[in-house]
């Protein structure tokens, strides 16, 4: 089946979405799933039978990739920031995540954003390899600005959209997510993560939340644990060892989420 054409561009350059009660009760129709790594994205591109966009919506020269198609009456878009043009690795981290989120919202005007990916987990808080979490709140742990009020700006605490029925029915773990631009963790980061009361740690969530909040598009975070941060194994080794198995778990979880969303409104979630 031929994929549907992309929606018309946003002519007046404004975003019509806000969290007005109207939007809360309208069936969700367009979703954008932001995923940092190709290995995380491909199982979902397969599951939803999406097509890579050959006529990109994004500025020429950017490595950003959109996969799209229709799945269970939803317009599903997976946005991957692509490979770094010089180094050839996935464009992980907050800068690319916020840019693609902004560009995807402008181009597609989604009803809902989902930031899906892998994360480190804290076993002291109950996380195990392969667990899938829906993050209730996200904050940064590497933006230290010790001046009153700027300190709070640095932490950038934001909430994911409310999904009590979804997490209950699909039996996901729920916890707080802390975001920083490093895979490893300095003692200062660790103190901030503790202060954020986080159970998982990633490199994109709070950046996606910032843009979602700016443009008033609700966001959910679905994160699967690839490595235990407070364990004995070096994070990068454990991450690479578990990445492919955990992306299968992530793919399953995101498919369940999208199946659940189909035919529902935000207020049903
Ligand atoms: N060495 C990896 C680098 C990926 S960076 C590679 O082979 O390409 C890690 C990615 O997984 C980021 O997108 C981040 O969001 C997530 N992640 C997984 N475990 C993490 C952890 N312990 N801390 C921070 N981010 C983590």
Automatic annotation (TrEMBL):
It comes from the Eukaryota. This is Uncharacterized protein. It comes from Arctium lappa (Greater burdock).
């Amino acid at each position: 089946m031929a994929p549907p054409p992309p929606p018309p561009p946003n002519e007046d350059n404004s975003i019509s979405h806000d969290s007005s009660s109207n939007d809360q009760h309208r069936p969700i129709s367009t979703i954008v799933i932001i995923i940092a790594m190709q290995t995380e994205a491909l199982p979902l591109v397969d599951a939803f039978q999406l097509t890579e966009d050959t006529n990109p919506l994004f500025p020429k020269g950017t490595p950003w990739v959109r996969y799209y198609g229709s799945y269970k009456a939803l317009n599903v878009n997976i946005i991957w920031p692509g490979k770094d043009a010089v180094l050839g690795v996935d464009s992980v981290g907050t800068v690319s995540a916020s840019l693609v989120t902004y560009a995807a919202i402008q181009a597609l005007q989604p009803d809902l954003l989902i930031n899906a990916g892998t994360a480190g987990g804290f076993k002291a808080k109950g996380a195990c390899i392969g667990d899938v979490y829906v993050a209730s709140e996200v904050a940064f742990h590497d933006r230290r600005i010790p001046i009153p009020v700027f300190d709070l700006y640095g932490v950038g605490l934001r909430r994911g959209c409310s999904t009590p029925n979804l997490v209950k029915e699909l039996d996901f773990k729920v916890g707080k997510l802390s975001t920083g631009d490093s895979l490893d963790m300095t003692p200062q980061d660790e103190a901030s993560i503790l202060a954020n009361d986080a159970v998982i740690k990633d490199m994109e969530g709070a950046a996606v939340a910032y843009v979602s909040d700016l443009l008033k598009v609700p966001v959910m975070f679905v994160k699967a644990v690839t490595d235990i941060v407070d364990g004995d194994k070096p994070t990068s080794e454990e991450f690479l060892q578990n990445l492919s198995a955990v992306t299968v778990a992530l793919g399953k979880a995101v498919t369940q989420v999208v199946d659940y969303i189909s035919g529902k409104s935000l207020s049903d979630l």
